[in-house]
Every structure is written in structure tokens, then in C-alpha cells.
Amino acid sequence: MSRQASPTPSSGSDLLLVQRTLAGEMHAFELLVLKYQRRVERLVGRMVRDVDLVQDIAQETFIRAYRALAQFRGESAFYTWLYRIAVNTARKQLADLRRDPVISMSSLESGDDDETSGAELDLILQAVDAETPEALLASKEIAQAVNEAMDALPTELRQAITLREIEGLSYEAIAQALDCPIGTVRSRIFRAREAISARIKPMLESQGSKRW
Amino acid sequence: MTSDRRPQVLQYMNSPLKEKAQHAALQDWSELVSALVDGECHPDELDALLQPGPQRQALHEAWSCYHTLGAALRGPVADPSLPPSGDFAALVMARLAGS
């Protein structure tokens, strides 16, 4: 089974949540913060080594994103837009503090382009630095548990979650591929996620209280 | 949809039945969250998910867990497969509420 990286296949939910935030539902924005917190922290952590400053800049990134949300037109992926705000926020904070970035801003600005996908941005990040050893280990342990849980899934659940998460297909496309109703696809993907979640929840609970 | 009516029904149930119904309601919520992760939930389902209530913590946990496992499946190049830290989003939301 191919487990290569593909673009995050959930940008549809981002747009939905942006629209709901703009309609005044703050909780929708909270879901975006929960989703992108680690990616923004990782990005900022490439520029700044001070853990507290990373947290401040990451928070400020989301505050600025919220205030500028009406300008997000959905022409690029939400993360691409957020990425640019994070880089600019970090640059400004470092300038205010008269500190130099850990790495050249130009290496991050190569992703400062509407055509650059979230996956390409992650490749840029991977090229400029590695995770902290602790974060890398935790991430590997979670990945291993997820893959073991995948192997233990019944075939129909494994097929559905693979087509969704790895291949990035819509429910409709998966329904066609597996020759079953869309409702069945939705239910199978949910059941697969629940089965995998049951295995990794204890690990997530212990990791969720940590900062990297 | 029945899940958004369940909390009102729960108050008339005895304890074991109530526990069972609460579990079923949480399952329904989690299935909606799963569909939202994929951008495949209907507007009225999203309305139900965004309602304030006791299910919010479960929603956050399922939302974070599903994104984390998705990241792990897509491999190390994708977003980091670590769960969000508990208080980060709450701090951002508190700052926004205070500004």
C-alpha cells in the first residue's frame, strides 16, 4: 500500500470553517487553530529557537489571520495563506526584538506563492531543518501505532480510509471506486478512524500536554 | 437529523439507558466530525457541530485525533503527526474574545 505524502485532502472543510467564522461563529475558527497549530509552530520553530517566542508568534499568527480573514478569498489553500502570515509575523517580531532568524527568510519565502501547495511548503520545511529529537520520536511512535491499527482493520474499512486520507479522493469518487453508497463510505471512514483512534488516544493524551 | 434532539430526550431516561444513549449521541457527533474533517458534511450538520454545549470537548478531541492520524498516514512530509497542545487554541480564542 502506498503511504507517500499527498496534499492534505481536507481543504474543503477549511473553506467551510472560514465561511462560518466570517458569519460570526468563533468556534469554527477554533477548529482551524486546533488543526493548524502544530504546523504553524513547526514553521515558526524553523526561524526562532526560543520556545516561548515560538508560542507567542504562533498565537499572533492566528490572531492576525482572524483579523484578516475577510481578505482570504479561497484562491489558494488556507494553509498557504496562513503560512505567509506566519512568516511575516515572525519576521516582524524578530525585527522588533532585533534578533536574527535561525535560518534565512529567503528559504521560507520560496514558498511565498499562491501556486505553492501545503505539501510543497512542508517539503521546503523538511529541507531546512529537522524536528527536535523528542518530537520526532513521539511522531514516529504515533505513526507506528496508526500503521499497526491500519493493518488490523477489516479490508473494507482500510480501503475507504486509504482512498480518503492517502489518495485524497472525495466520498463520491470513493463510492464509485468501491461500488457502494456514499453513506456507506462515510460510515466506513468514520469506523476506520474510530478504530485507529482507540489505539492512539492514550498516546495523544500524553503528548497533548507537551510543547515541542 | 436526530442527534441534535437527543440531549433533550436524555433527561427522561434512567441511568443505564441514559449512558447508552449518551454513547450513541457521541458516536453520532464523532461521525459528523469525521465528515467535517473531509469537508463532506452538510450545512445543517455543521450547524449542529458548532452549537455550544457539552459535546464541544469531545468534538475537539475527535477533530484533533482524526487530523493527527491522517497526518501520520500521509507520512512524515505532511503535517506533523502530533496532537495540538491543550491550551494553545483556548489562549488564542481568549485573546480574540478580549480584543
Blueprint of the fold:
The complex is a heterodimer of chains A (about 210) and B (about 100).
Chain A: H1 11-22, H2 26-47, H3 51-67, H4 78-96, H5 105-109, H6 118-128, H7 133-151, H8 155-166, H9 171-178, H10 182-207
Helix pairs in contact in A: 1-2, 2-3, 2-4, 3-4, 7-10, 8-10, 9-10
Chain B: H1 6-10, H2 15-37, H3 43-50, H4 56-74, H5 88-98
Description:
With 212 residues, chain A is mainly alpha-helical. Chain A contains ten helices and no strands. The longest helix of chain A has 26 residues, at 182-207. Chain A is globular and about 60 Å long. The termini of chain B are far apart. Chain B has five helices and no strands. Chain B is 67% helix and 0% strand. Chain B has helices at residues 6-10, 15-37, 43-50, 56-74, 88-98. Chains A and B meet through helix 1, helix 2, helix 3, helix 6 and helix 7 of A and helix 2, helix 4 and helix 5 of B.
What's the assembly state of these chains?
heterodimer
> Stretches of chain A where pLDDT falls below 50 for ≥5 residues?
1-10, 111-115
Mean pLDDT of chain B: 78
User: Termini separation of chain A (Å)?
Assistant: 31 Å
**Strand percentage of chain A, roughly?**
under 5%
Give the strand tally of chain B: 0
Residues in helix, % of chain B: 55-70%
| Biggest beta sheet summary of chain B | none
Order of helices and strands of chain A: HHHHHHHHHH
Helical content of chain A stands at over 70%
